[in-house]
TrEMBL record:
Molecular function, one GO term: fatty acyl-CoA hydrolase activity
Annotated CDD domains: 4HBT
Protein name in UniProt: Thioesterase
Taxonomic lineage: Bacteria, Pseudomonadati, Pseudomonadota, Alphaproteobacteria, Hyphomicrobiales
Amino acid sequence: MTVKDEWIDYNGHLNMAYYNVLFDQAVDDAFIKLGLGLDYVKQRQASFFTAEVHVCYLRELEAGMPVAVSLQLIEFDSKRAHFFQELRHAEDGWLSATSEQMSLHVNLSARKVAPWPDDILANLTGLAHAHASLPRPERAGRAIGIKRGSSTTA
């Protein structure tokens, strides 16, 4: 993907909302490969919803920069998928941002969380096996907060 000119904010770098656009496009690509694309939504009246996201902004991106997003499945259960993404400069390889996300499988008719169907559960299991040898991302599981006594007070 490429950082678009219209995504640049008044600070001269990629606006924070568009980091999420890049991450979201990569999630869609990955979930389509798991069988959870538009056809799945239409045929089964189910989809996946984001329940929580934690983004860390590490290095600025500018207009025209080529970027690539990787996705690693951390864990999943009968209704949820927890994954971690890295957004990198596609040519130079440096890390720009990370995103950690929890998604829920949702029955769209009932608008409630529901178990993954067996075929999707099998696809998630296959992805988990493929990612089993990957180390847990260093930034996974981070919490946001101010540690008292470790910074200047306002």
